[in-house]
Amino acid sequence: METTRYHRSDIEIFLKDFINHWANSDENKIADDLAPFVNFRSNVHGVIKGKVNVAKNLFEDRSNHSLSLASSNHFIAGIPDGKENKVVFSFYLYGIISDENDSIATFGATSIIEILMKDSETMEITDFKFSVNWIEGDAHLLQKWSPIRGQRFWQPGDTTPVIVSELDAPWNKYKNLIPIGTEKDWIMEAYSRYSWAIDQNDIGLLISTFSRAAEGNLTPMGDLKGLSNIIGQIKDFRQPWTQMQHFAEPIKVAINDDEISAHMIVGRIVPQYFEKLEEEKNYAAFYPLTMVKEDGQWKMEKFNYIPHNFRSFAGLKDYADRFI
């Protein structure tokens, strides 16, 4: 049962259409998805205002090459402004660009869009933050982009990050976010909150993703028990990395009869494994999770990580049936 007058599936279709218009360099359709006054901040494009200018810049990303884009790690919620007509949508974007000589580059990005819901079918992006985390392969295929910092540490003169999680993450920027979707959707989005927190090195947000009685195997840190051990180990593990990104999507969720605990399987996506983005994804591992509702929020209580390659969503889902 949906919890607002907007359907989550409609918003996800809007995002899928938008990134398809972007990948296909359809400048007019890109512009149609944007509000006239849209603000766009990107570490590879710069700061751009207005739908015409933003659409032109996104249109130029493909150049004469082949570009595929896909999203994961979705979080969708209503912004509590009293009007119920604004939505925030955070997600990871991964892409593959190639040329006629079979040169290939892959990249991953963290994104936040805010959407004005004019009605149930008409939506416009009013704010778009897009931060490319990494590029692998032939970066010359993305020559219109400004260089990213990549794996090196901060140096004097570096620009301010486009996304500052402590200020910009939906869970930090807005209080009392309005749920969109079903209870299962909000259980699934608990993993999006966790992956965002560890990838953005937002330890305060990370604490909110584990229950007080959390335990499990957190590869490569091993078996950990208790919130202090888990957060302490993850914090030390995370420090040396300049960037990381956990692409994943929920495969299966089952809510228990008590309605305050659940089981979930999450599949780990590795974009570099793709030759091209197709309907069927490749997965490198999966996470069997036990979830509990604590302080009004779904959190992870038992956590496991199992490396295993799957060539399709259906294959991983069949395997997940053994656990749920």
TrEMBL record:
<dbReference type="Pfam" id="PF13577">
    <property type="entry name" value="SnoaL_4"/>
</dbReference>
<protein>
    <submittedName>
        <fullName>SnoaL-like domain-containing protein</fullName>
    </submittedName>
</protein>
<feature type="domain" description="SnoaL-like">
    <location>
        <begin position="186"/>
        <end position="303"/>
    </location>
</feature>
<dbReference type="InterPro" id="IPR032710">
    <property type="entry name" value="NTF2-like_dom_sf"/>
</dbReference>
<dbReference type="InterPro" id="IPR037401">
    <property type="entry name" value="SnoaL-like"/>
</dbReference>
